[in-house]
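Dear colleagues,

I hope this message finds you well. In preparation for our joint manuscript, I am sending the P-type Cu(+) transporter (Heyndrickxia vini) sequence together with its predicted structure, so that both groups work from identical material. I would be grateful if you could confirm receipt.
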Amino acid sequence: MVESMQIDIKGMHCSACATRIEKVVTKMDGVLKVNVNLATEKGRVMFDPNQTSKLIILNKIKKVGFEPSISRNTSYSTESKRKEMIRLTWKFSISAIFSLPLIWTMFSHMNLSLIPIPEIFLNPLFQLALATPIQFIIAYPFYEGAWSAIKNRQANMDVLVVLSTSAAYFYSHYLTFTTTNNNGLHYETSVLIITFVLLGKLMEAKTKRKTMDAIKKLNQLQVKSAIKFENGKESETFIHQIVPGDVLLVKPGEKIPIDGQVIEGTSTVNEAMLTGESIPVEKSIGNKVYSGTINENGLLKIKATKKESETFLSKIIGIVEEAQISKPPIQHIADKFTGIFVPIVIIIALATFLLWYINLNPGQVGDAIEKAIAVLIISCPCALGLATPTSIMVGSGRAAQLGILFKEGKMIELLSKNNMVVLDKTGTITKGEPAVTDIMVRNLEEKLFLQLIGAIEKNTNHPIAKAIVKEVEKRVDVIPNIGSAITIPGHGIKATVNEKRIVIANPSYFKKQANISLKGIEKEVKRLEEEGKTVVLVSVEDQLQGMIAVADEIKETSEKAIARLKKLGISVSMLSGDNKNTAQLVANKAGIDHFQAEVTPQMKAELIKNYQNKGQGVIMVGDGINDAPALTVANIGMAMGNGSDIAVDSGDITLLNNDLNRIADSIIISKKTMLNVKQNFVWAFIYNIISIPLAITGVLPPWFASATMAFSSVSVVLNSLRLRNIRI
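The corresponding structure tokens are as follows:
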């Protein structure tokens, strides 16, 4: 048995923090998998409850120096982050105010005598009084984080900040009481580093909040209360109190509060936020409705079929959150690099100090410390740690808006590496439900003909019968009652309607009836069957009076979607369990060059293995039920959804609105997201490659290095936010 726990983690400052938590928790007995996301400040742990527990895992993370808690509802999380933002704003504001006089004194160091400086600002004791609260109160969390890291034999951004600011502060403190040379003081270096780090964190937090827009919008769809209808009375009740079987009223303009089934009323419902489809869907008795969708114009009475935690919307939110927490393979490169980067930076900073103190400017401790501080600060690996998770968050959020759900972040990376799409036919390329395509009536009035067959077929559950009844109801207002009926196994049905003997059956049945002639319609039957349509004939009082053709037509969007895939350089193949003629017709209409007919679910899986053995990366697209073996075997399994619980639970990616265009959309999002990740990596690496030598040579002073470090992190997040505007 395996359990999963999602955790909120406070106190992470850089990717080294996330890596440290993963390393420590992974080593615990019973822990199977750990993912920690710096950008979302969340983690997910999979563990064996027989070997460990949630409390033990949380305590372990706490011992490493962080504040973990089991994730609660999003409103709680949002409120917590809002309070944290307020605290951060206050800290930065106080630090900035205390820093201003010390910044002013920098002008004296630069010999800018044109700018008057109050005498008290140059007083070492005054500078000490301003710097001390910033160093030990405002910056206390950095010391706390650094100590925790060192205790666990790790090094992170806190260590770099503490080393650099403490060196500047304590050296200045020493000079304050041992020399009268005010120009040797570096209090402004210490406070400016802390102030700029706080500014960077504040800007980063504000921009990171925008990367959570997709989750925020999905959570805003959730309703807190509903109108319950019981014993003829209406009462308001909380959503968490609703259980399957409860009857609810939903007025025009209101959100559907829970997943359920319409038991009274008709309306149109806007499901755009769940499926990405902007056209409202008609709902009447028997239709399913989903939590978070909007009832547009009619009063609906629905019966709840799910609890709040089991709704379709809850599953979607869970999938999107999981995708944003999990890591794609490319992130592990950054994790390995940052794991050794901070110790290397400390060594480089020490070497810089010795180089300046011994060779470049012998005996000048203050100057050497300043150069070493610049190296420590400029090298904080924050941008590198944010490069991947922010892009994955925004990319998966943009996909969710289009009704594309990535189960894990790694699927975003893996999807773009495949070069072949294999499509199921029924329900994927086609609509998945039969529809009447042709009606031919001989000697009867068409209205009477439709009434007679509608009366018989409305009492039958066969898919073809349902398609016929649906068409009849569009054309006639009144359907008479049936007298008696007898099923003809494998062929059709005999019945009496308005005292008329009627037979509705397939052509093979009528060919065996010597008293009923098919003369004059055999060619038409053959033509329709060659088009892949199912034909049923109708006789009244032993006289053939008409026929109806039914077919599962291809979706309006399928041909365009397949053309888009080909334009992207992806080969397309169709696997169908239907006969060759029908499969051939569908393939021709959809523009598919390669197909296989009469294949079983197991054969589909074998054929996909054959494609993979030939070097193809295969994306299998199916309805998530009978295509389960193929979805599992493929490199990426993509399930068509349209609100199906099974589809949401199947495959690696779910397309909620059943539109094949979303396959191309998901591939485009995948490619652009991974390009964005690479851009972030390039920027993070180039920033360090250029900045570290400049810091070593003294071109970058510590305060400027701190500002540049903050800007690098914010720029990575801003670049990731561009994915919100991906044009499809």
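For the figure legend, we might mention the following. The chain has a mean pLDDT of 83. The chain is about 50% helix and 20% strand.

With kind regards,
E.M.
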